[in-house]
Design goal:
about 90 residues, mainly beta, Elongation Factor Tu (Ef-tu), domain 3, about 45% strand
Length: about 90
């Protein structure tokens, strides 16, 4: 089943981990170990592997968001994320 998540924020850590705060998932969705395509403005940018899901800080403010972790280098910038055109597509 195809699933599309809106990327709201990107966090990069010094150990090479990237966390994507995404909106559009249900509480029962499982992401660890899944492959996803990064799509920007409708154009595929790259494929990544989702390693795990982290606890979302301040869950009351980010009520419909999930924190998805990857060890892959993610090729999007903060301006692209703020534009609202960045999505993760899972098949």
């Amino acid at each position: 089943m195809r699933q599309e998540l809106l990327i709201r924020e990107v966090f990069r850590f010094s150990n090479g981990t990237t966390v994507l705060a995404c909106q559009g998932a249900t509480i029962s969705d499982s992401f660890a170990g899944r492959k996803a395509r990064l799509v920007v403005d409708g154009q595929p940018r790259q494929s990544i592997s989702l390693a795990s899901e982290r606890s979302m800080l301040n869950q009351t403010t980010h009520i419909n968001q999930r924190a998805l972790e990857t060890l892959d280098r993610v090729d999007i910038g903060p301006e692209e994320v703020r534009s609202g055109l960045c999505r993760l597509v899972l098949d």
